[in-house]
Structures
1.
Amino acid sequence: MTTSSNFLQPDLEAKVQKELEEIKKEQERELKKESIRKKEGEFYSTYKEDEVYKWFDERSKRTELLKDPSVQSSNQPKYLIKGGNICKGKTDILFYIHSKNSNEKNRKAIRQTYAHPENFKKLTVRIVFILGKGANEEEKSKIIKESEAHKDIVQTDFEDNQRNLSYKVLTFLQWVVDYCSSPVPRYIVKVDDDFFVNPFMLVEEFISEVWEKENFVACHYKENSHVVRTKTSKWNIPESAYPIKDPDVFPKTCSGYTAIFPGDLVPVLRSISVDTPFIPVDDAYLFSVMFEKLDNPQYKQILEGMTLNKDMGLQDYSGNKRLQYMSVSAWGDITEMMNILWKGTMKHLTTLGKQLINEKRLPK
């Protein structure tokens, strides 16, 4: 007679074997990185250009059954600017950026530096700025003109304030399914509009770790983040949306100023959003409440490669050593900061970066 445990044993063994293989691959990646850092002279990379392209071209396709795109969250905002022309053909990297209507300088600096469409010789980079509705007629008019000029803005009809940032998450997830899914972008890089991202370091040191994984995010990872219940706080989360637990925490989440995840995860998260109670803290809404509904979600801590301290970032990009920070706060004079960090990026290109960059973008 065969017991139920006999049926379960092969599945358990396969799961353990898969976890051991992941651990081995992680160790091999860390050893590879260490060997890179020990090289002297030119900023050497053990990766070659051809190897990079398989990270974009050889991702396996997901097969989940998804909800019909017309079935939406009851909180889904309505489009004011659809951004229907942003994705045409394949998209290798999509920079997904939460931006305020008034931050036109930030968007301009981003377009001219790290998210410029011609940064890479072969990889296709696109940007989408997610905005709420304008505060007045002058602001509305400016956003329409900016959108017509650059075709990288998606705007929906919610009031743009701190308590409504999660509407930007819903907007983005629905927009990808509606207008950017033929095919979906290979990788999503969620960024705040006052941060700089080194695109070549992003590919070499971070996408290199994401490409074989599914329910995965690389970010400033946090465990057991306290859930704010103070009603007067802008971070307050009502019990009706997220029931009190013991302890009252988000078990796993990300700080969303820079986070990297596979693009094919977006339609899955959009389906999840339909039945997920709305909470007004965008990072927790996306990376905790929605992510915890995925099958075996994985988080990669990349805090060592990011800094909220702009002075540390400037020191890193102005020095002569291999760069430490892929993501740097550019708070303050955004135009000056972005230009300094972009020049530092050019100065610190690795051997791989020099193969990937479009020659048009090299300093003259």
2.
Amino acid sequence: MGWMNMGYMALMFVVCACFVSSFVFHFSLPGVPTYLKNEEDLGNSIVKTVSRAAPAPANVSLGDLQGRPLFVFGDSTVDAGNFNITKLPYGVDYHTLGPRFSNGLTIADYLALKIQTAIPQAFNSMGKEELKKNVNVNFASAGCGLLAKTHPMGPIPCTSFGDQVMQFLTSTSKNERSVFFISVGANDYVFSFDRKNSTQFAEEVLSKLEIYLKVLYSFGGARIFIVNNLAPVGCIPDKRNSTTNRCDEVLNKGVNAFNRHLEQTLWNFKKERNAAVFLADSHLMYAQIRNDPTEFGFTEIYKPCCGIWNANLRMFACGENTTYCHPRTGLLFFDGAHTTDQANNLFVKRCFAGRLCYPIRAPTV
């Protein structure tokens, strides 16, 4: 799903027997009082500790991010191989770093290249000493989301967003110059969405994001955030009607509610803190490509490059023995849920050209 923040996975073609550690809040974290037992306690404590946080550099712009450390959190849109789930043909056009959920690089990889910093390595691939020395780490985990209950079907390991934050707090060195890139939320709509009440569900999901933004700010020294919104998840190949090719508009309605509330959540967080917060507008990017694919270099925006429709799973299954397209130029989707290297690269270019990413501002009524 690349820049589209649609962290959905090809579930039947991944096998891993890794153990997922659960950090939650009963662990003793640096700077976090040990008496905090749950998110409510943590949130209350954050309110009291915000004023003690060190100030951020003033008026940071996207152009000021060159050479800064980069930490990445989220789902398969930015996963760098934390559980080694993907195999070829994933990564077929870029072998050096190992397969991502694309034919090449993710938006997080291209973000690192754009700001001229090292591409963050997967957290699970690094030892304790390496984590202390390495300032660029990727905690993203395919399949999970903001809600603890969000998890793919089957014995597939993943780390929730909250646990990713805990991994950061307990293992890495802190640097207030760092950029924190977050691309998460789509899996909550794929696996946990309450189709009856989109507003209430969006508020529930974003309440978790708000808590963990405060955690990163108060206890992790985070001052610069880039947060990706959600593209219309109901329009990915896996979710389109196989007969009419129409999008799942109920799902898209939920995503729209999420994006509206995301802007308010980020603004509320920003206005009370000395932080730079940027919104990356994946939803706008998809709308622009759909309206005029050829303008952006795409000739196919509906069909995936890799994947055979599985009616039982209701998804395009892309595995090691699956035939995939060649060449891949001009395609928006690599599999039934994830965008191609071409799309991911384009997203970051347009982001830094000021066409998709901008400092968060007060939402209009």
3.
Amino acid sequence: MVMVTTVQLLRWLPVCTVLVTIQEWHRTLALRLTNMNVPEVVDYRDTVTLSCSYDLGVHQLNSVKWYKGNQEFYRYAPMLTPQVTVYPVDGIAIATDRPTICNQYLCSIRLTGLGRRSSGEYRCEISGDAPEFKLANGTRNMTVEALPVEDPTISGLSSSYLPHEHIAANCTSDRSSLPVRLLWFINGRTVPMEYLQQQQETTLESDAFQLRYRTLEMRVPIERLVQRELDNAIHIKCVATVDLVPAASREAAAVIALRSHRSSLFGFGGGHHSNAAASATTTTTVVGRSNVLLLLLVLLSAQPMLLTVVVMWVGFTVYSLPDSWPGRSL
């Protein structure tokens, strides 16, 4: 077994330092690609940007070439005239609404008019000048799809409900070539599967894409989902999610009301009925007293003498009360 001593390590230290220095020096001299940006999934209605940046080291830039597959479609050559050359490739259209940006540090181009044939592998290739013509390149894949651009549509809701009713509604997603997952939420909570119907899907062909519309129906008993702190308002939301492209998720929301008092909704029925009975008794008493007073007034108006007697009797009664009686001073 070979034992490495500290002295031997110290002898090799200068050599290692020189090797690392040479490697770092070579790296700074070499032409290399430092970054490449190509979106993975895009909507066919978008204008997308492809870019790559590079470090030339001690070299001069000879050219930057963009390929789709093995076909070159764009070249930037600062030493030639013209500096930019575009080659026809199926599925590729360079946006001309503003100039591309290519220089000694980066090259950025924009594609428009996307379609199915625009999907594929994209390569950025950097070339140094003579006599070595050093190369550096990178590749990325881009897929063109039809993504949802509109919020889902909620249909079938009423503006208000009674506690014993069901909320029945449909949520329909915008068209998409990728699968869309629909989710219902009530007051921030996911609606359980037991209240959802089987999801329906409709397909159609458009712009060479197989598009899907999906509809999910829910039927929810209000008394099972409403919480006590609601104040008779129910917040409903439908979310359409594209799992492969989270940024393409869309949502729609609605607020509905309950037409009954909160106590009857959350199991306080006994107190509610007692209050109702007390209210009915009070109403009956007030109505009965009103009828008696009305009859007395009719009799008094028909008999002026009787009215005089009654007034005198009331005055004598009040005068005869003791001084301590409440209201005697009135």
